[in-house]
TrEMBL record:
Family, as annotated: Belongs to the UPF0045 family.
Protein name as catalogued: Thiamine-binding protein domain-containing protein
Residues annotated as domain Thiamine-binding protein: 3-94
InterPro entries: MTH1187/YkoF-like, Thiamine_BP, UPF0045_domain
PANTHER family membership: UPF0045 PROTEIN ECM15 (PTHR33777:SF1)
Pfam families (UniProt xref): Thiamine_BP
GO CC annotations on file: cytosol
Superkingdom of this protein's organism: Bacteria
UniProt cross-references to SUPFAM superfamilies, sorted A to Z: MTH1187/YkoF-like
Length: 101
């Protein structure tokens, strides 16, 4: 499965920024060893249900340690028996764009 998620603390730093707290969540994801990528809006992670959800929970917990309230947006693509889809889905789109698909 692939999960795209975004975690945001309700309390920011002195300037209202949340990047330090979000960076700690991303660190949890990267240290998990699961395939992942982060963009401006979401972090994507791929793996089995239990392992992915455990990483999301740990990421929420690390943000919750710095904020009294945490927002979580999560979208999942659940497709048993398929691995490597984090890159493969994008590759299929690129193939259609360049006419080879």
């Amino acid at each position: 499965m692939i999960v795209a998620f975004s975690i945001s603390p309700t309390a920011g730093d002195d300037d209202g920024g949340v990047s330090a707290a979000v960076a700690e969540a991303v660190r949890v994801v990267r240290e998990s060893g699961l395939p992942n990528e982060t963009n401006a809006m979401f972090t994507n992670i791929e793996g089995e249900w239990d392992e992915v959800m455990a990483v999301v929970k740990r990421a929420v917990d690390v943000v919750a340690a710095t904020s009294p309230r945490v927002g979580l947006v999560l979208k999942a693509d659940i497709r048993p028996g398929h691995e490597g889809q984090l890159a493969a889905k994008v590759q299929r789109i690129e193939e259609h764009l360049d006419g080879t698909g």
